[in-house]
Design a protein that fits this description.
By secondary structure, this protein is α/β, with parallel strands linked by helices. The protein is built from 10 helices and 10 strands. The longest helix is centred in the C-terminal third of the chain and has 24 residues, at 243-266.
Length: 301
């Protein structure tokens, strides 16, 4: 019986997986723990890389669970978490790096809280131009982010890459909502808090987070984030603002999008990596808001 299960849903992550696994297998903790690899239909060498690490680290309990029968991270987690041996679950993404002490800090925090958030650090894995497009305010690039907040509100949530929770909470919430493309972690956090489970920040558990650096991927992610936030505003009205304020904010964002787009074209921003990425993110986000409004008949939150 493990005290904590580190669960990783993975699909085609051969470029970064070894670095992630290095950071996990070298964690030190004096309680039983395991690594559960949810293989979500990888077609590259991800499964082979994990098998190699498991063979080379017999002192760490590591096992692969076939999650290729379901599509998406939320479905993979809902399939695999019930099979994990731990009383608590700590999630890990296959492209991040966990700092020393991460596992012990998360495990100890889960002794006292049902939902915990590791801290995110951004400089280690991201080149300067990526930090500039995702963190436009320079001061934020060197800060450790302990909890996240809803786009328009100061309501905290735990991002999936730094989330830990007890089996009790997972069972009570019925797992992750698989109707979301990427917003399942936000939804999980909100539903937990609405049921009276606060988020415990764990600043001693640090995750080095990797932003996306390919334009197509950046746009897809932004689109999915925005669309799912509209869905959240429809499904969880308790965390949204009054209707008129939401419409006013969206109109303001529309004007800003037009202004920024014109500035980008006139200044030939496409010659700059940061500006190309920033505009791809903004265009993806704005199109996602429209897609969400059409699909869910609700304004952005």
């Amino acid at each position: 019986m493990a005290d904590v299960s580190v669960v990783m849903a993975c699909r085609n992550a051969e470029e970064t997986l070894a670095e992630t696994l290095d950071s996990i297998v070298n964690q030190q903790w004096d309680r039983p723990w395991e690594v559960v690899f949810a293989d979500n239909g990888s077609r590259d060498r991800s499964a082979a890389i994990f098998a190699d690490y498991a063979a080379r680290h017999p002192g760490v309990r590591m096992r692969r669970v076939d999650a290729s029968s379901v599509e998406g991270k939320a479905r993979a987690l809902n399939l695999v978490v019930p099979q994990a041996a731990g009383r608590a679950i700590v999630l890990a993404d296959s492209d991040d790096v966990m700092a020393p002490g991460w596992l012990a800090a998360m495990g100890k925090a889960l002794d006292e809280a049902d939902l915990v958030a590791a801290a995110s650090e951004f400089q280690k894995l991201n080149p300067p131009w990526v930090l500039e497009y995702r963190l436009p305010v320079p001061e934020t690039r060197t800060q450790i982010q302990e909890v996240y907040h809803f786009y328009y509100h100061r309501i905290p949530f735990v991002s999936g890459h730094c989330m830990g929770f007890t089996r009790k909470l997972f069972d009570e919430l019925g797992g992750f909502d698989t109707d979301y493309a990427v917003g399942d972690d936000v939804d999980f956090s909100f539903r937990a808090q609405l049921k009276g489970y606060p988020i415990r920040s764990v600043p001693d558990a640090v995750v080095h987070y990797r932003f996306r650096d390919e334009l197509e991927s950046i746009g897809r992610q932004a689109h999915a984030y925005a669309r799912d936030q509209v869905k959240l505003s429809r499904r969880l009205p308790a965390v949204t603002r009054p209707f008129k304020r939401r419409i006013k904010s969206f109109w303001k964002e529309t004007k800003e999008m037009g202004r920024d787009g014109s500035k980008y074209l006139l200044s030939r921003g496409w010659r700059n990596d940061t500006e190309r990425a920033r505009m791809r993110w903004q265009w993806g986000w704005y199109s996602g808001l429209w897609a969400g409004m059409v699909a869910f008949r609700a304004p952005p939150p």
